[in-house]
Recover the amino acids of this structure.
């Protein structure tokens, strides 16, 4: 059994697709493993916390963020750094493998970081690539993150270029988010056919399961026509991907598209990178502050523990003091009684008589 990795740009419908794949019997993880839901994804993001953490570490290591990737380049990593990230990815994968061999993983940053995950896997996974009309993605990013539309389009272009190049020579099923949302049952049939072609065992979800997962109403951003608002190089890549979707699945996918530089992309990234240089610096300071805060919390916890120990010691000493005070009181009472007896003439006379009596007895 081979795992499935969902590849798709942010806001491309990859969350809904991953949720759907779990109904085929593919293991995502426990509920606490995911990052949960939000107003943007009411049915959940279907992203694991540990996968997100590894991807963020990779991006931060290159001084990048999910929406600031002008400096993203694996050649900037030393072999030691690369292997360190592979080991972290392996830890996540081993945790999944312990539960089930047919698992599914999705996280949009994997479009960029997939070479790390590929190196951590024993065999090539199945890839399901989900595509959404770029202007819909850009509009969604604008509403969610206030990214300018042109920048959102260029971010889609860069993510898609990285993703398609990374999944070269893999078995890939190409899907459209529009098809998934409008014809979910038909899309499920395509997924099932792809799994059968690759000799995978799975559970076929019922129509009720499918329609409960895929809700067309949750697709808020819609375009009236393909290629809306795209530049020439964006149109070419968009058309190339739609051509792949028309073929459904590709065995040993060969990425044969000549990428073109985009003036909009370069200018947008340059402008954006200036902003993000400060942003990355701020994040670094924030990280240091968080580390310092963690250390202070640790010291506070130690002090709290010491205070609790001192309180317990104080309580114990107070109890001991109470016991000693009571003992001293009894001793003082006994001492007072002895003094009274020693100072009382009649008591001394009795003691002398007893003494004489004892001596006579001994003498006899």
């Amino acid at each position: 059994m081979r795992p499935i990795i969902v590849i798709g740009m942010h806001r491309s419908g990859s969350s809904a697709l991953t949720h759907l794949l779990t109904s085929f019997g593919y293991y995502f993880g426990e509920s606490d493993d995911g990052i949960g839901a939000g107003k943007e994804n009411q049915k959940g993001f279907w992203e694991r916390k540990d996968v997100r953490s590894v991807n963020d570490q990779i991006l931060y290591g290159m001084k990048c963020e999910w929406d600031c990737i002008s400096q993203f380049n694996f050649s900037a990593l030393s072999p030691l750094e690369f292997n360190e990230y592979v080991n972290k990815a392996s830890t996540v994968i081993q945790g999944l493998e312990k539960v089930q061999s047919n698992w599914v993983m999705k996280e949009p940053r994997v479009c960029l970081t997939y070479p790390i995950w590929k190196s951590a896997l024993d065999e090539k996974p199945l890839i399901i690539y989900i595509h959404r009309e770029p202007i819909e993605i850009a509009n969604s990013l604008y509403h969610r993150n206030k990214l300018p539309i042109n920048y959102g389009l260029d971010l889609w272009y860069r993510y898609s270029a990285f993703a398609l190049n990374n999944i070269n020579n893999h078995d890939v099923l190409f899907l459209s988010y529009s098809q998934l949302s409008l014809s979910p049952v038909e899309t499920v049939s395509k997924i099932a056919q792809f799994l059968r072609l690759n000799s995978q065992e799975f559970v076929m979800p019922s129509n009720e399961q499918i329609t409960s997962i895929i809700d067309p109403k949750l697709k808020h951003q819609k375009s009236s026509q393909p290629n809306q608002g795209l530049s020439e190089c964006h149109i070419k890549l968009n058309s190339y991907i739609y051509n792949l979707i028309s073929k459904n699945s590709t065995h040993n996918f060969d990425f044969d598209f000549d990428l073109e530089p985009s003036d909009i992309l370069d200018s947008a990234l340059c402008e954006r990178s200036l902003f993000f240089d400060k942003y990355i610096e701020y994040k670094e300071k924030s990280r240091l502050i968080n580390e310092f805060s963690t250390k202070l919390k640790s010291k506070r916890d130690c002090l709290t523990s010491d205070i609790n120990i001192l309180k317990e010691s104080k309580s114990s000493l107070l109890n001991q003091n109470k016991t000693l005070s009571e003992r001293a009181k009894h001793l003082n009472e006994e001492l007072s009684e002895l003094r009274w007896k020693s100072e009382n003439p009649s008591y001394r006379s009795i003691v002398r008589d007893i003494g004489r009596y004892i001596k006579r007895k001994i003498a006899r």
Notes: The longest strand covers residues 126-131.
